[in-house]
Amino acid sequence: MFIQVNLSLLEGFITTIQIFALTLLFALPLGLIISFGSMSKWHPLKWLVKTIIWIIRGTPLMLQLIVIYYGPGLVGVWAQDLIKAGVSNGILQWLATWHVFDRFFALMVAFVINYACYFSEIFRGGIESIPRGQYEAGQVLGMTKTQVFFRVILMQVIKRIVPPMSNEIITLVKDTSLARVVMVYEVLWNAQRFIKSDGLLWPLFYTAVFYLLFCGILTLLFGWIEKKMNYYKG
Amino acid sequence: MNILEVKDIYKSFGKTDVLKGVSFTLEKGEVLAIIGSSGSGKTTLLRCLNFLERADKGSITVGDKVVFDASEPEPKASVTRIKQLSFGMVFQSFNLFPQYNVLENVTLAPLLHAKESADYKKRKKEIHAQIEETAKSLIARVGLSEKLKSYPCELSGGQQQRVAIARALAMNPEILCFDEPTSALDPELTGEVLKVIRGLKSSDSTMIVVTHEMEFAKSVADKVIFMADGIIEECGTPEEVFDHPQSPKTQAFLNKITEI
Ligand SMILES: Nc1ncnc2c1ncn2[C@@H]1O[C@H](COP(=O)(O)OP(=O)(O)OP(=O)(O)O)[C@@H](O)[C@H]1O
Ligand SMILES: [Mg+2]
């Protein structure tokens, strides 16, 4: 029994860590791109991006998971029904081929979009807090916009956003437990199973320790990064 | 020969006309001091010269090259970027890069610039060594050789401004502009920065200094411009402008300053 629980939890750990790592890997760069969109001088793009951010931040992640997992399948069924009823055109034919995503894929899409939107707001706050004089100083020295951003601005932005980022990333660790909504079984679900099947409570404590350790390591890591960047002020 | 010819610059922000036809010329090695009350458009003029603002009308010629002409369509950023290197700028608020130490602040732009040269890959080491050496000698010139590895947050305001001067000099501009370089400093630090600027005066460095330090303007400038409401109200040698001002506005301004 002990070995069985351990194996099952281990499987859950791996899933949790996968969700966590893949979300970070894709959501961080996507968040930076979205933040550029939300600061765009071209207003249609800016407002489109701001609306998307509003929707994503304004609805529960759980709902987004459900929509992204079941949504395409429902659209496909609906299109097939219409075709059966005699309505037919190219778009419907194409929509009729829609079906539910692979579970893990749907999960990752929802997590990446959701977290990218939160990250983008953190990036935007950081970028906008850098005084204009920094850009101008780079510009009068003949640097290109890209050089100014990557050589002058970005480092300062990173320094400023480490604390809010670490908050968001620690929240992500715990949000991974939402994966069960689309039947991806992470560590907490695997632990909970043993309550029902075998009346075992200790696997739950086991997972609590896992979360605490995981977040503890992250906290130490972010503390270390903050300290590393403390060599200058401003 | 004139190294700089500024012709009929106009600039407005929305409905406020800030510059209403500014023209002047400058010879190589000359120091021009620009004085005038707050809001008269001094900063805006320097920003137009440095391509931080685009003037609505007028032209700017450096040597025999027209670097800016408002009647032509706005050139690509890459073209403007090369042209703006004719000018250097020292800001009122220093604007040093906080994450880089003194030496890195001075070498950053020259290193990035060198990457664009054709033989960069072949002579990388040599180029780097050369840039660092030049930077060190510039830092020595502003009296901060001891502070090569210090970060801006570890320096006094006066020291930061001296680094900013070295950083601007590193791109070897033909004309170096200063926008009130000492007005963000405590009075006891003003002197060291002014001394550095004074020390830069030589036959081949042309400078434009916007300043409220009248004594400094009097003793260093070859030419003084008094600006009022977006135009050049009076222009001449320091003796002409300070001792025998013709315009009533200049007289009023100078009186007000000496009263304090
Ligand atoms: N980006 C801007 N947008 C709108 N108005 C501006 C802008 N920049 C400057 N102005 C206006 O232009 C006028 C001239 O400003 P400028 O900074 O050139 O004056 P200044 O002579 O440098 O004054 P000071 O001695 O206070 O530095 C001011 O009335 C200012 O409000
Ligand atoms: Mg000003």
Question: What are the salient characteristics of this protein?
Answer:
heterodimer, A: 234 residues, mainly alpha, MetI-like fold, 9 helices, 81% helix, B: alpha/beta, Rossmann fold, four-stranded antiparallel β-sheet, 10 strands, 26% strand, binds magnesium ion
Widest β-sheet, arrangement of strands of chain B: 6-7-8-3-9-10
Strand residue content of chain A: under 5%
CATH uppermost class of chain B: Alpha Beta
Q: Unreliable stretches of chain B, pLDDT < 50, 5 or more residues?
A: none
Question: How would you sum up the global shape of chain B?
Answer: globular
Q: Largest contact between protein chains?
A: A-B, 23 and 29 residues
Question: Would you mind describing this structure in some detail?
Answer:
The complex is a heterodimer of chains A (234) and B (260). Chain A has 234 residues and is mainly alpha-helical. Chain A has a single domain (2-231), classed as MetI-like (MetI-like fold, Orthogonal Bundle), CATH 1.10.3720. Chain A has helices at 2-38, 43-58, 61-84, 90-96, 103-128, 132-140, 145-175, 187-198, 202-228. In chain A, helix 7 packs antiparallel against helix 9. Chain B is an alpha/beta fold and 260 residues long. Chain B has one domain (2-99, 172-259): Rossmann fold (3-Layer(aba) Sandwich), CATH 3.40.50. Chain B has nine helices and ten strands. In chain B, strands 6-7-8-3-9-10 form a six-stranded mixed beta sheet, with helices on both faces. In chain B, strands 2-1-4-5 form a four-stranded antiparallel beta sheet, covered by helices on one side. The N and C termini of chain B lie far apart (39 Å). The relative contact order of chain B is 0.17. Chain A binds chain B through residues 131, 133-134, 136-145, 147, 151-152, 155-156, 159, 231-234, and chain B through 50-52, 77-78, 81-82, 84-85, 87-89, 91, 93, 95-99, 108-109, 112-113, 151-153, 167-168, 171. The complex binds adenosine-5'-triphosphate (ATP) and magnesium ion. Magnesium ion is lined by residues 42-43, 179-180 of chain B. Magnesium ion binds next to helix 1 of chain B.
